[in-house]
Amino acid sequence: FGFFMGRTPLIKLSPKKTWEGFIGGGLATVVMSLGLAYFMCQVPYLICPIEYSAELERMTMSCEPSALFRPQEYGLPDTVTTWRRILGIKETVTFYPFFIHCFFMSLFASIIGPFGGFFASGFKRAFKIKDFGDLIPGHGGIMDRFDCQFLMATFVNVYIHSFINIPTPGKLLQQVFMLRPDEQLELFHGLQDSLLARGILQPEA
User: Environment class of residue 146 by beta-carbon count within 10 Å: exposed (0-12), middle (13-18) or buried (19+)?
Assistant: First the structure.
């Protein structure tokens, strides 16, 4: 977008960056991310874990996709009731919950991600160098191509640990099985005492 339609400079640190490229690239990133997410939700190889099947005696990937990769119905907020009536839209919309995560990640990549490139540009200007390397002709080195990815990788890591990789009984149980037998017993007795104290577990007669 910036190459063909760029006219308005975005920031002095990167003279080639333009507002047209920033906005156009951002919209394209969001649209392509949602399109790729839809494709991924259709492929079992990408959404099913590889597990050993005792019946087939081999590794398989056949599974019932989690709710994250199945279409869910969501009600529209009351604030758009008027527009819904004018446009004749249904009261609910159906889409994959995975789209929500992809939307926020692509939004961050579009708006905040480029600032990693701006920081790299300022760093190069401070040391009066054009590129970090010359491995890729016309583009510089590896660092010149991945300057935005470091900021994006940090955000993805924080996002996964904050909103996706939430502890579940199954995950906790897997970690318990990795403990030594004496540690498992200590955990068991501690959990039992806590449940008894809160009245959730009844004492044995």
Answer: middle
User: Secondary structure of 83-143 in the HEC alphabet?
Assistant: HHHHHCCCCEEEECCHHHHHHHHHHHHHHCCHHHHHHHHHHHHHCCCCCCCCCECCCECHH
Single-letter code of the amino acid located at 203: P
The overall pTM is greater than 0.90? no
Q: Tens digits of per-residue pLDDT, 47-70?
A: 887 777 777 778 777 788 888 899
CA distances from residue 60 to 5, 68, 104, 164, 165 in whole angstroms, order as listed: 49, 20, 32, 24, 23
Per the model's pLDDT, the better-predicted residue between 100 and 45 turns out to be 100
Distance CA(3)–CA(12), nearest Å, equals 17
pLDDT in tens, 7-49: 788 877 677 778 888 898 899 999 999 999 999 999 888 888 7
The tokens describing 83, both together, are: 């527009």
The number of angstroms, rounded, from the C-alpha of 95 to the middle of its chain's C-alpha atoms is 17
Confidence category of residue 139, pLDDT binned at 50, 70, 90: low
Q: CB-hemisphere CA count at 13 Å for 29? A: 19
| Cβ 155 vs Cβ 101: under 8 Å | no
Structure token digits, residue 19:
């507002």
